[in-house]
């Protein structure tokens, strides 16, 4: 991380963002019918202020909830495939550090593990992340317990911090330096305001999980789970998907189909069902256990990072108050008890 910090006034930043929106797709937190989402904006005036975090994470910019992978055209005996790769430069403004970290978690699977995902890679290469530090942790945030921080600049290209009269600007990557080349700025000489932190949650070490695999805890906690999957859809790191082909209206004797990729989740009942109807995770407790083992054990073991950034969205979204921090606390306590025994 570079130590260079600049100051830019609020007005100058707004003008610069307006200019960016004319040449690239500018995506920022925007309120749509009362719901805050990362969405394209035409001008800085549309960008929300004073938010904790959008309801959905920045994941959907790189890995949309539904995406066409290719189209299939059949004319007589001829079949043609057309790959639908995304195009165009985009900038995401106002990315919270937990969401930027979520992108790093997705990189470990989609970019750093073979085969590389072409759609994700294309969007990742053409997107610059402008982070916005959180002045305070939200009620359900626990980023500091899983290695992050409200002002962590590690995963963005440029980090902004709100200061008196404007923003402190920290370019982090070459992409970030290039992006701010035309942002009129002066050196920032003050102190960056430290974020207000919440009490940490105990993070069980990776070896704490396998001994709890057969614990009755999973069936107990899942008793109220609705298998609704919203916890995965709001999560910046859940990345399971389903692929299906659907017929489209054709013309001139053609038959057309599209191959779609849609978000899926291991908490859903049908997720693990296989040919012949067998379901190795037919029981809710087994599915919920998989969700938490994936976050804190399987993913870290296989790809490196933990698959949780502590954003707290799944806590806010779960209709029956299943709270990931309670799960972490319970597993950490069980691990301590086993250590004492
Ligand atoms: S707190 Fe929940 S939604 Fe946020 S990264 Fe962790 S598992 Fe995903
Ligand atoms: S959001 Fe809650 S109820 Fe829905 S699948 Fe997740 S844990 Fe179960």
Walkthrough of the structure:
The chain has helices spanning 10-23, 59-62, 97-110, 118-125, 174-179, 217-222, 230-233, 284-303, 313-317, 324-340; strands at residues 6-9, 25-32, 35-41, 66-75, 78-83, 90-95, 127-132, 158-163, 166-171, 186-187, 241-248, 254-263. With 341 residues, it is α+β, with helices and mostly antiparallel strands. The protein has 2 domains: 6-187, no CATH class; 206-340, no CATH class. Strands 3-2-6-7-8-9-1-10 form an 8-stranded mixed beta sheet. A 4-stranded antiparallel beta sheet has the order 5-4-12-11, with no helix packed on it. A hairpin with a 5-residue loop joins strand 11 (241-248) and strand 12 (254-263). The model has no long low-confidence stretch (mean pLDDT 95). One iron/sulfur cluster is lined by residues 225-231, 267, 317-320, 322. One iron/sulfur cluster binds next to helix 9.
Order of helices and strands: EHEEHEEEHHEEEHEHHEEHHH
Structural class: alpha+beta
- For the largest beta sheet, what order do the strands appear in spatially? 3-2-6-7-8-9-1-10
Biggest sheet details? 8 strands, mixed
- Categorize the overall geometry: flat
Helix content: 25-40%
Return the domain count: 2
The kinds of small molecule bound in this structure are: iron/sulfur cluster
Distance between the termini: 44 Å
Tally of separate helices: 10
Look at the structure and give the mean pLDDT: 95
> How is the quaternary structure best described?
single chain
* Beta strand %: 15-25%
For the secondary structure, the number of strands is 12
What is the alpha-carbon Rg in Å?
22 Å
Give unreliable regions as ranges. none
């Amino acid at each position: 991380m570079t130590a260079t910090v600049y100051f830019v006034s609020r007005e100058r930043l707004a003008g610069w963002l307006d200019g960016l929106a004319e040449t690239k797709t500018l995506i920022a937190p925007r309120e749509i019918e009362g719901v805050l989402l990362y969405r394209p904006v035409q001008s800085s005036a549309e960008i929300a202020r004073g938010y904790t975090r959008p309801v959905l994470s920045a994941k959907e910019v790189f890995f949309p909830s539904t995406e066409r992978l290719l189209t299939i055209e059949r004319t007589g005996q001829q079949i043609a495939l057309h790959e639908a790769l995304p195009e165009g430069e985009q900038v995401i403004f106002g990315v919270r550090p937990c969401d930027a970290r979520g992108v790093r978690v997705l990189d470990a699977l989609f970019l750093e593990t073979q085969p590389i995902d072409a759609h994700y890679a294309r969007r990742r290469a053409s997107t610059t992340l402008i982070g916005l530090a959180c002045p305070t942790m939200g009620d359900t945030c626990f980023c500091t317990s899983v290695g992050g921080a409200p002002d962590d600049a590690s995963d963005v290209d440029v980090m902004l911090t709100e200061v008196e009269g404007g923003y402190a600007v920290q370019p982090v990557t070459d992409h970030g330096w290039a992006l701010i080349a035309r942002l009129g700025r002066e050196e920032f000489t003050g102190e960056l305001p430290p974020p207000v932190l919440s009490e940490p949650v105990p993070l069980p070490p990776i070896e704490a999980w396998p001994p709890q695999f057969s614990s009755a805890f999973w069936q107990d906690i899942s008793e109220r789970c609705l298998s609704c999957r919203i916890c995965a859809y709001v999560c910046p790191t859940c990345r399971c998907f389903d692929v299906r082909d659907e017929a489209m209206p054709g013309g001139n004797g053609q038959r057309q189909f599209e191959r779609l990729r849609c978000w899926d989740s291991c908490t859903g009942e049908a997720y693990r069902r296989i040919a012949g109807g067998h379901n190795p995770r037919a029981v809710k407790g087994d599915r919920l256990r998989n969700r938490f083992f994936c976050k804190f054990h399987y993913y870290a073991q296989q790809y490196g990072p933990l698959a949780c950034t502590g954003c707290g969205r799944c806590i806010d979204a779960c209709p029956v108050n299943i709270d990931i921090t309670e799960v972490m606390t319970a597993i950490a306590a069980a691990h301590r008890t086993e250590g004492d025994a």
